[in-house]
Amino acid sequence: MKVKDASTDWEFECLTDSSGNALPGGLVLKSVLHNGHNFAKDLRLIGFKIETELVDPSGTITSSAPVFYALGAAPFAAASVRNLIPVTVTLPAPAAGTFQYLKEADTALDFARYFKDPAGNYVGVGVAATYKASGFFSALPNCEYSDLEVEQIFLFSRYSNAPPHEPSGGLVAARFLPMTRYALTANSAVDKTKPYTRLKRIRFDYRFQLYLDRHYDVATNATLAQLGNQAGLFADSDSSVGSGIKGVGSGIWNVFNSGTAATAVTSGAFVAVEKPVVLEVTAPGLGAGFPLFENITASGTTSTVRGWDNVHWWGANLAGAPLISTPGAFHCAHLHWRWGGAAPGVGSNTVFNPTVYPAGMPTKSAMKGMWGPVLDPGIWMQSIRVAIVKNDPKLDPNKGVALKDLSNDQWEKLFDPSLRATPIDIEGGDEIVMWFSSEIPQRLEVTGDAGWVSAAPKATYTAKPSGTVFIHGFFFAHDSERSSFAKVGSRDPAHWPMDEAGIRSAKKWFRPAK
Amino acid sequence: MVSSGSPYAGKSRLYALADPEPIVREADRIASVLRGLMGVREPAGCVVAIAQTGAWMRASLKNEVWTRQAPPALPSSTDAKATATKFLQNLEKACSPSNSQWPQTLADYMMIPPVAQLNLCELIVVPRADGSAWDHWLYRAEPQLLVDGAGTTRIGVFGAHLELRIGDGGRVVDFVMRWRALTRERHYAQPLPYTAATENSGNEDLGPLAAAAQLPPVQGYLLEGDGIPQYYLAPYWFKSDGHSVSPISASDWSLTVDIGRVQQGDETMTVMALAQGGSGQYDYRWAVYRYDAILSGYQQLTGDSVQSVDSANGRATSSEIELQNGIWVAMVNVRDRVTGAFKHHQQLVFSSPFSSTSGGSELPVA
Q1: Cα gap A305→A291, rounded to integer Å
Q2: What is the pLDDT of residue A492?
């Protein structure tokens, strides 16, 4: 199904069968452009993994092996692909004079003046499909859930400055929201006085083959090099305050690696940058909702790592030519799942301080309301992982690789070491692919610590039975990096605190921000 | 032109935006003009789209951009630039009353940003995704407008953009214009100088990004974008803090709005909107929608609580409203009761899993 929306100027192809149903695997979008600028070659959810555990009233808990599911295939019923069509926003100009009208009348405040149909979709174009599986959990003994419904909503917004993409509102872009909403139905017949099955965690694995145009500032077209795309990893600075929260009982990085439960703690005060990414990378984002957490390596050692906050993606240029501007990145795909100190003035506030005042309020420093993980609050304890990998036929679903083979029980092992033991150099640009995973543990115990002031109450937090993943979306900006507004950023490479030489010599896939 | 002795000499210009609806009504005639300029007679040879919302335009020759079978023969950059310049000059002429065929209903509209004032950002060559050939030259220009009452200083329009692609045989094969037409109406506002932020900058170590935080602010008009209610263009200061770029008011009609969560309960949260840059006396209206329930539309909210608060710019009226816990896009319309300045603002807001009353003590600074 070819979609070309005249009102937003997004265009893409959505693969379906001859009946208009989603193919096994769910929505697959190809050749995605906005305003004639390439954004992606292939966008999809690979599938999801569910891990359950059997709880005995005596307290014994036995975990099962994770099971992979692809949407659009059994046990889900066939799902038709729906088109999401945007409604026109009315932008009136008073005939008698704009400024006089605004001075004299307050009707400009009425939303119905612009958004005439309260039921209308004013955001953008997209496709959606709903997958239902009655009795999804019925094979499990005495399970707390019975059915599962998953909805994919791939939404492309208009190109604008609102809602602000960056906290400060200084980036014009269109959003791509590849949302996955799931809803678990409680089993009214479950008897918890007997051994029963409960959900332990659910993990959604995406593959995004982004492709942004390369722009060459050359006088002639004499040379043509295949340089592909580059990516950058950034971690925003937070407060200088020490940690505040310690969570246990949740697998964080080595999530499906039994016996490797990790703990989560909060922020530190630093910035980390890898612009552009030097070698292929598996990069932690969040550990159970927290940006700083303890990671257990394959060899069993524990280290506290700081996850990255965002990924940027752009068309590579010739060696030595300027990169995207930082801040700014005016022709770039942005992916932010968390805002650290990007909003100024967080020096005396905690990551999870619930009092988040608007800008300009001197009572608390401005945190602009967007600070913190941009996650569905009902399933806030998500672990986010990203990998940036050279496209390889062994990991390409377009080359016949089965979806189940693109989702490892231990997510990062798909790349390290299964793909190759040593990450290869992608700094100069290559045909690279972003792999993104979001995992929701069903229970997270926050214990605090005697030496720490807890911003989060000590408690066991439980994920809600429904939620939406990828609510933060991507931003696709495609303005010139040389407008007068681009003069506020730096277009140089930046590698910090680990420098480029250090990254090369270490040759590690797993590179946290710190 | 305003003389330096006029009462507007020390003021900032505001430009009224035109109603796009008459432009959309004339879409066929505008499409005909664009096809003529691109050397195509048959509608099938050139797809022209004029967006219903905002009347942004695109004209694209069929099977030329990305999909041309034979690799294009591109001109030199000098010739490509000359082609683009000529196209824009002709377009400006064609979309004005000097063209007898131009619709009378649009006679008072500045459909095209002043071509003589465009800032040519770049002319770059773009290869195909598979690296098999160069596909086209991309010409990008930033609209600029006079900002001071005396008419001596031009500044860019943030959010506006003109792009042309020059392809095979040196033809314009694609034209994109992100621009809202202006009326002839102007207003002159009190300019506000840039003052460094007074907020606590924390103890951040910006590392290699620190240099960007030292760069001076840039003044520009702000075009909010497609589908965003906006009545006029007003000037803002754009300043980097090392992380991101912030628009800051540059006139008393250049409002900014921010929303924050000020109270978190077990079931609901309270969010506050605060406008800045104007008189301090503001009226607010609220609505919300959800990305993951986009087909449910939006919901207007009532029952907000208005109060006067201390802000960085003095006393100001803020508005608080209670929302169910969750993740929302909050929409706020704000009007300055004294000047009439207007701002539509949207912002993603989400609840915290931790209640204000059951913890959340602030950590001491290390």
Answers
A1: 8
A2: 86
